[in-house]
Design brief:
two-stranded antiparallel sheet, 12 strands, 2 domains, 10-stranded mixed beta sheet, alpha+beta, elongated
Length: about 375
């Protein structure tokens, strides 16, 4: 015969002081655990939200990212006249040759400098990215050393306001506009003219090519044609696929979440164990009475396990609620592909909260198992004689 859940609920309320300390300890552990996972989820979401499924990104074969790729002007001239490439209303090939460089900029809070990614694009590059929207000022004019930055970077770096100046090598770039990239990886970039970028940073080659094929079938043919042409030595894939793979920054954070979660859970397990041992000690006669009434050892064991899981679940739920205010908070970290600062938002999602509560319940079960085992093994006579 199983003990009713009401019995466990009443015990939690009666011993509320010890229970509250355990709940708060578990809540703090779960809150940190969920926030670290939300950090990694935000980085992954930024990459997953980047790109247009109609576009193809072309980089040098063997390179893992644009920052380590070299594409010649000859490659650009060759690919733009491929039959599979779409044309706009002016019959111009919809292809953009782009340059990715890094500049150092001072943080707006005065805490030092950080690397920022500058992308040199052509007018076709802006056309190929409809998710990027100009929200203030105007787009840059080629040859004028002008740059447009994301609004999120403008909130993090000094000189990124409209009319501000960004130092790039020996040149000073004037900020003429802000854009919003809808939470994508482009929110971590500043844009200027591609050929002007090559001139300022003394680059002979581009970093990548962005191409719009005539349709899905043409996209497949174009990627195969580029991959099979040994003279080009280039690699082509859908733009969305490329960015979905650029999540290396999230991996160390996930590992850190696991390590910190494990370390803190040890303390939480001992806290839960201490609470449950105290509960067993104060309820020895009560446990003996339950045995006399006909409740089996296994019923008492499971009752105490349920009680520990219940306390932990409450702590886990509170910890998740503590993490919710950080949802949508914008911050930045180093991108291990480009070593530039990448901007993203914390993403506290329902699956992460469920994961946090499950983590808390696991802590509760581990912490209550030994005390529950002790309670179930108490001799009936000895338990009834206890004071």
């Amino acid at each position: 015969m199983a003990l009713p859940i009401q019995y466990n609920l009443r015990n939690v309320v009666v011993r509320w002081r010890a229970t509250l300390s355990t709940i708060l300890g578990i809540a703090l552990v779960v809150s940190v655990f969920v926030l670290l996972l939300a950090l990694a989820r935000g980085i992954e979401a930024s990459s997953a939200n980047t790109g247009d499924p109609r576009n193809i990104l072309v980089v040098r074969r063997g390179s893992q990212a644009e920052s380590g790729s070299l594409v010649s002007r000859e490659h650009f001239r060759t690919l733009r006249y491929f039959d599979e490439v779409a044309r706009n209303e002016q019959a111009e090939p919809i292809i953009s040759a782009e340059v990715v460089v890094i500049v150092s900029a001072p943080r707006i809070d005065g805490t030092g400098e950080a690397n920022t990614l500058v992308r040199g694009v052509t007018p076709r590059g802006i056309e190929l990215r409809p998710q990027v929207e100009l929200i203030a000022g105007r787009w840059f004019q080629p040859g004028q050393r002008e740059v447009v930055v994301s609004r999120r970077l403008a909130a993090r770096f000094a000189g990124f306001e409209i009319g501000g100046t960004i130092k790039a090598g020996q040149a000073n770039l004037i900020v003429v506009g802000h854009f919003d990239a809808k939470g994508s990886a482009f929110d971590s970039e500043a844009w200027m003219d591609a050929d002007e970028t090559r001139a300022i940073f003394d680059r002979e080659m581009y970093s990548s090519l962005l191409v719009r094929p005539r349709g899905p079938e043409a996209a497949t043919q174009l990627m195969k044609r580029i991959e099979d042409d040994k003279r080009l030595s280039l690699r082509a894939e859908l733009e969305v696929d490329y960015y979905s793979k650029q999540t290396m920054t999230a991996t160390p954070i996930k590992i850190l979440a696991g390590i910190m979660g494990l370390a803190m859970s040890v303390g939480a397990v001992f806290a839960a164990m201490n609470t449950m041992y105290a509960s067993v000690a104060s309820r020895t006669r009560e446990i003996g009475t339950l045995r006399v009434l006909g409740f089996s050892r296994s019923a008492i064991l499971f009752s105490f396990l349920i009680e520990g899981a219940l306390v932990a679940a409450i702590g886990g739920a509170i910890g998740c609620l503590m993490a919710i205010p950080m949802n949508g908070y914008s911050t930045g970290t180093i991108d291990f592909q480009s070593f530039a600062e990448t901007v993203f938002e914390f993403r506290v999602t329902p699956p992460l909260m469920l994961q946090g509560i499950s983590f808390a319940v696991a802590i509760g079960l581990l912490g209550s198992f030994l005390p529950a085992l002790r309670a179930s093994r108490l001799p009936v006579i000895a338990a009834l004689k206890s004071l």
